Amino acid sequence: xxxxxxTLEKIEKLIPRYPTKRSAxxxxxxxxxxxxxxxxxxxxxxxxxxxxxxxxxIYEIVTFYPMLREKPIGRRHIKVxxxxxxxxxxxxxxxxxxxxxxxxEGHGSSNADYTIEFVECIASCGTAPVVQVDEVLHEGIKPDxxxxxxxQIRQETEQMKTSVSKL
Length: 167
Ligand code: FES
Description:
Distance between the termini: 25 Å
Helix content: 40-55%
Bound molecules: FE2/S2 (inorganic) cluster
Order of helices and strands: HHHHEHHEEEH
CATH topology of the largest domain: Glutaredoxin
Largest sheet: 4 strands, mixed
CATH architecture of the largest domain: 3-Layer(aba) Sandwich
């Protein structure tokens, strides 16, 4: 496992805070996902060995919680709220339009640049529909604003790629 030194340090500090090692499983999964972007088979085996568990014990956790991922995601993680206020204000249409604009019709909801997912309420119901792009919340993204919004995301993504390639 190729975890960053700071992640390894956090994991080492975390384990003794729990009465049993097993209880640290979920927070360690979060730390590994934060570090790697997802939790691979190898990572599940590593976590299990670290906690004296079987890999199946970690696999059960990763597949149970929707916020944990077994596969890598695109460079930009786009989360569209689908709970009541957002759904009533068009979030299902918003997701469809974002997929069409950023990924292409009929090409699913993920590629190397973008992963677009539904999430449950992200506590901004008064400004529905809301879309979170990476860590930034965008409010009032109604279907008629999606085209401009997608252009903005696309531009930011191209800038990110350019700045990475200059490193
Ligand atoms: S319903 Fe979408 S933020 Fe609460």
